[in-house]
Amino acid sequence: xxxxxxxxxxxxxxxxxxxxxxxxxxxxxxxxxxxxxxxxxxxxxxxxxxxxxxxxxxxxxxxxxxxxxxxxxxxxxxxxxxxxxxxxxxxxxxxxxxxxxxxxxxxxxxxxxxxxxxxxxxxxxxxxxxxxxxxxxxxxxxxxxxxxxxxxxxxxxxxxxxxxxxxxxxxxxxxxxxxxxxx
Amino acid sequence: xxxxxxxxxxxxxxxxxxxxxxxxxxxxxxxxxxxxxxxxxxxxxxxxxxxxxxxxxxxxxxxxxxxxxxxxxxxxxxxxxxxxxxxxxxxxxxxxxxxxxxxxxxxxxxxxxxxxxxxxxxxxxxxxxxxxxxxxxxxxxxxxxxxxxxxxxxxxxxxxxxxxxxxxxxxxxxxxxxxxxxx
Lengths: 183, 183
Hints:
2 copies of one chain form a homodimer. Chain A is an alpha+beta fold. Helices cover 16% and strands 39% of the residues of chain A. The model of chain A has no long low-confidence stretch (mean pLDDT 96).
């Protein structure tokens, strides 16, 4: 089941990435496409909307992303856990992951990489700074367009802890009244 | 209640940081100490054990950390949520946060900043690379010593989603059998 998505302010994508979910990164370069599973990322700025990500040069996606200077960060939930694990344990050099994992590639608006329709949110990214790519495989992307399903408001995202174990996002609590500065 | 901690392999601290919890960063420089709440961080490497963190120059902690080139990343759980929010909403320029929030400063082994006893885990960090500090407030630290309470194995960490709302870590699920390469 997939839900219709709406445009979402790129300056607010922390809502989905800051809690640390495992994400799926889609890429495309010269007709080659791929999807990788990624857990090492952090929000870095609201405006421009920056996200820093470690993408190992051992991954098939590395060259696609470095050469195209683009990708899409897709946020899966618990229902996609087995596909997420499968994607992380196969190489795009061997298989077409959209086909193998029965995921739908929707066209993005601003980048060549595809939006994964079955994910709750899709963030179109352009490479913003590659200063630390050589040394740490660390890419800083700008989110240039965000698509988010209208519901549910809070997701059962999956968070990796190593050793094959995932933490599933639990309940939410508000402490809004205790914030004195920005939220 | 605080539990006795034991040494933990620094190469395995992803276990605690990769799921994206809000953490408390303690710092010390020339007799000044502080604690800040931080949500923008990512694991970057196993060995050396690297963690990248955004620490805004607007924070009182920024100068303490930049000058001392050290800090401790402490992992709080749900029981410390209100203190964690309070720490994020006060400035070390105005108050001594250890006193105000009734937290215990235990001496670290390798850095001058204190371990927060009430946190489940404490990671002593030395600045590893400041190449992106000026441009993005992005510090790359090496975890040089890790202290972790023996139980519980999985924590009710808190994960920020913006707007004053936190997600609390839920249940865990294993997919270990589906991993074909490293875990």
